[in-house]
Design goal:
Blueprint (H helix, E strand, L loop, with lengths): L12 E6 L10 H9 L2 E4 L5 H4 L7 E4 L11 H13 L3 E6 L9 H10 L4 E4 L4 H9 L11 E6 L13 H4 L4 E6 L5 H11 L6 E6 L7 E6 H11 L5 E5 L18
Helix pairs in contact: 3-4, 7-8
């Protein structure tokens, strides 16, 4: 700890810890170390009991659940909470699903901590996109077929499909695309991709509630999956993958661990 406050009080620290897809055995050793050392742990709905079991008995555990479409703390409130605890000399851990650097608003938390003079660290986690590929037993890239991998968020701050997406890039038949937080907007996105020239038969896979016992897989075509998501509206968080590299995944004998 450092003493940056005018009154000489010790300043604590903040660690943004990547929890991966939810499987506790996919945590990094550094993540476990930070959890064991934490005085305060801020966690959301995707942090299970197994992950929190690494916390000390005297650590303060604070639920700050953030889930699209549900009431949740504002980002500014979370920033203030982390910083206020750190300024009390506490070692604060903010658990983030997947990797903190990918669609997790880490830039806002880093900026707020640095502006407040609080040390902040990022502990990488396994991103949901690569964890989904591992669960499916497939590669996201493939020579000749898929030389490029791209990741995109499926909704903007209003929860709608972003209006400034690079549709030409997202309709690239030679790429594998990973759509985060897109279960509600994917039908609209698929329509735009098809209009842009991407085949409606493009292999597409949805992995729902990855890293939990409720993990489910839906495999099909771009147009078929879009129709299913519009009709079924899955309850759990979804990772959506599409591209030629996914041909046969979840079907024709290439079954993942759980399938519907």
């Amino acid at each position: 700890m450092t003493s940056n406050e005018p009154n000489g009080a010790a300043i604590g620290s903040i660690a943004l810890v990547g929890a991966g897809p939810g499987d506790v055995d996919l945590l990094t050793l550094r993540a476990v170390e930070r959890l064991r050392a934490a005085d305060v742990i801020l966690y959301d709905d995707l942090a299970g009991d197994a992950l929190l079991s690494f916390a000390r008995d005297d650590a303060e555990l604070i639920a700050v659940g953030k889930r699209a479409g549900h009431p949740s703390p504002k980002q500014d409130e979370l920033n203030r909470l982390m910083i206020s605890y750190a300024k009390l000399g506490k070692r604060v851990v903010r658990i983030k699903a997947g990797d903190p650097a990918i669609f997790a608003r880490a830039d806002e938390e880093i900026g707020a901590a640095r502006a407040a003079g609080v040390p902040i660290e990022i502990v990488p986690g396994i991103t949901t996109a690569t964890a989904a590929a591992a669960f499916l037993g497939t590669s996201l890239t493939k020579r000749v077929v898929a030389r490029r991998l791209q990741m995109v968020t499926g909704h903007d701050i209003e929860g709608t499909l972003p209006s400034d997406l690079d549709l030409a890039a997202l309709a690239d038949a030679g790429a594998t695309t990973c759509v985060f937080m897109g279960k509600a907007t994917f039908p609209a996105l698929a329509e735009k991709l098809i209009a842009q020239g991407l085949s409606r038969d493009t292999p597409t896979v949805v992995v729902e509630s990855l890293g939990t016992p409720a993990t489910q897989v839906i495999a099909g075509t771009l147009s078929g999956i879009a129709a299913q998501l519009a009709a079924e509206k899955p309850q759990g968080p979804c990772m959506i993958l599409y591209g030629a590299a996914l041909a046969g995944v979840g079907r024709d004998g290439a079954e993942p661990q759980t399938q519907r």
